[in-house]
Write a structure and sequence with these properties.
The protein is mostly helical. The chain has helices at 5-8, 20-54, 58-68, 72-78, 87-120, 123-128, 134-164, 173-200, 204-226, 239-246, 257-275, 301-329, 331-338, 342-350, 358-389, 392-397, 403-435, 442-450, 453-469, 474-492, 499-502, 506-509, 520-542. The protein is built from 23 helices and no strands. Helix 8 runs parallel beside helix 11 (257-275). It is globular, with a radius of gyration of 23 Å.
Length: 549
């Protein structure tokens, strides 16, 4: 295997060879953290400006408080609302819960990619041949990850401070910095979770799956704590609850930073300790290499791909099923809470929903589920790209397997996963609704679940196109499309934006069923465009050389 130039080259003057792991990790993590910091800052700025343009009068703001301030149904989705009559309170309510989830996903993926992913790719073999130990390398990697977190915080804080200096927004510098700190807390926690999972799991995919289980459990605990069922104390049992308890911009409280910092330090210490107790390439929970052989699905490239993606698919499937069941179970009381609110009805109309009661609530909830499903789609695309980037595809293509068949097979498998996933969301949501006596028909809920698939299929098609045309940009293009769609939908739900801008969001093209009937025409168009993009990508893939990292 050719040596990485960054590793094999002599160390630059003034640089210690023993810090090479930290420097390489910091370079990659800081670049990613800065880019996401700009996104965080844009969300903060757009939310503040949206409030100023949409709620200009005192009456409008008081109506907003009456509609959202004590609504437990929306609190379960987005977190509790405080001081919505102020631009600070609205901004915190609108972006804190959303960006906490985004930051957690970023932290988890960055942590597993830059620890277990680098080890899987064989680069740590070269690094550990130098002047460092396994524990030393793990500690350096954590230091490099902290540089990425620092970049995320610095850019977020800078944009937030600049936004707050506006005479109309008027956040104090200290308030803006504390708000930025609250926004990146979940990212810090799940960077550490991803690092620990990289020691427990034998592959990056398994590590991401373990971290995904933890993220899903933490999110569900936060939902239960905010659902108004008398379990508020559960906020202290989840990192997302700690972020809420900070109450930035409204009633800042530094105390929840104590469990946050303690948890991060404990996870980091466990990561360094476990790194020294295992061999390179091994794990605390190793693959069962001595178990009886199970050759099922290993008779071809498609079967192999199914085996490789199974841990991630199972993890995401479990998260989707549990979340859908909870949404369905609380749909009836949540629908009652939503009824009769003019502000909420206006938000629903901006999103294209025209139903009422439980249907209206599930229309919003299924939008959240759609976001989860497109992340599943992006994971399938980046996993396909990783097959090529890490050299595993070379072994398959030397056999009688065409490039067209390989990429087409991965697209078909992803399609099947996403369609079944959407169907499963509908079924489990209906089971939850039936358990909660919501009285919703099975067919409409299942149709709403299938309605989630077209945006995800579009992401798969675009991802396949980028793999064929510009493979190294696959992750940026795929996740960039999702982030842009989320940002446009987030802003559009609370303001009157130009419909041409809203139409660029995948989620705006999807009808918020069951609050309104699924738009199968729009879904068919998205699916067709995705299929055409995948075909173009497969054709381009046949004509280019294989490209590594």
């Amino acid at each position: 295997m050719p040596a990485d130039p960054a590793v094999s080259a002599p160390a630059a003057a003034g640089r210690l060879p023993s810090t090479v792991v930290a420097r390489l990790t910091a370079k990659k993590a800081a670049r990613s953290g800065a880019l996401w910091g700009y996104f965080f800052g844009i969300c903060v700025a757009s939310s503040a400006l949206t409030y100023l343009s949409s709620y200009k009068t005192r009456a409008a703001r008081e109506n907003l408080v009456a509609s959202f301030g004590s609504n437990t149904a929306l609190a379960a989705l987005f977190g509790p609302a405080h001081q919505l009559q102020t631009v600070a309170g609205f901004t915190a309510y609108k972006v804190l819960g959303f960006l906490s989830i985004v930051g957690a996903v970023w932290g988890l993926l960055a942590g597993t990619r830059l620890l277990r992913g680098e080890e899987d790719a064989g680069r740590w073999e070269l690094l550990l041949a130098g002047q460092t130990t396994r524990r030393g390398a793990a500690a350096q990697a954590l230091a490099g990850l902290s540089a990425g977190l620092a970049a995320l915080f610095a850019v977020t804080a800078l944009v937030t401070v600049v936004t707050g200096r506006s005479s109309k927004v008027h956040f104090a510098v200290g308030e803006a910095v504390f708000f930025a700190l609250a926004l990146v807390c979940s990212a810090a926690v799940f960077l550490a979770v991803g690092a620990l999972a990289s020691q427990l799991a034998a592959t990056r995919r398994q590590a991401a799956a373990y971290g995904g289980y933890a993220l899903g459990a933490c999110y569900v605990l936060r939902m239960v704590a905010d659902s108004g069922v008398g379990l508020d104390w559960l906020r202290w049992a989840t990192p997302f609850g700690w972020v809420e308890l900070l109450q930035p911009l409204t009633a800042p409280d530094w105390l929840p930073l104590l469990p946050t910092a303690t948890f991060i330090v404990a996870l980091a210490g466990a990561t360094v300790h476990l790194a020294g107790t295992r061999d390179l390439g091994a794990s605390v929970f190793p693959d069962r290499s001595s178990a009886p052989m199970h050759p099922r699905l290993l008779n071809g490239a498609l079967g192999l791909a199914a085996r490789l993606m199974r841990p991630a698919v199972v993890a995401w499937g479990a998260a989707l099923a549990v979340t859908a069941f909870i949404f369905g179970f609380i749909a009836k009381p949540a629908g009652v809470a939503l009824s009769g609110s003019n502000s909420i009805n206006r938000v629903l109309s901006h999103l294209g929903a025209h139903g009422a009661g439980a249907d209206a609530y599930l229309g919003i909830a299924f939008l959240m589920m759609s976001i989860m499903l497109v992340f599943v789609a992006a994971g399938q695309v980046t996993a396909s790209r990783a097959e090529e980037a890490e050299g595993r595809l070379d072994i398959l293509l030397v056999r009688p397997l065409s490039r067209w068949s390989w990429l087409g097979g991965r697209v078909l498998e992803a399609t099947a996963v996403l369609v079944v996933g959407g169907l499963g969301v509908g079924v489990f949501a209906w089971l939850g609704a039936a358990s909660g006596h919501a009285g919703l028909p099975f067919s409409s809920i299942v149709d709403a679940g299938l309605n989630l698939a077209p945006p995800a299929l579009f992401v798969v098609g675009v991802g396949a196109l980028v793999i064929g045309v510009w493979p190294r940009a696959t992750s940026i293009a795929t996740y960039g499309l999702i982030v842009w769609s989320m940002l446009v939908t987030l802003v559009g739900g609370f303001s009157n934006n130009n419909h041409w801008l809203l139409d660029t969001s995948l989620f705006h093209q999807m009808a918020p069923a069951p609050a309104s009937a699924p738009n199968w025409t729009a879904g068919g168009v998205m699916t067709a465009i995705g299929a055409a993009a995948a075909m173009v990508g497969a054709a381009a893939f046949r004509r280019r050389d294989l490209v590594g990292e």
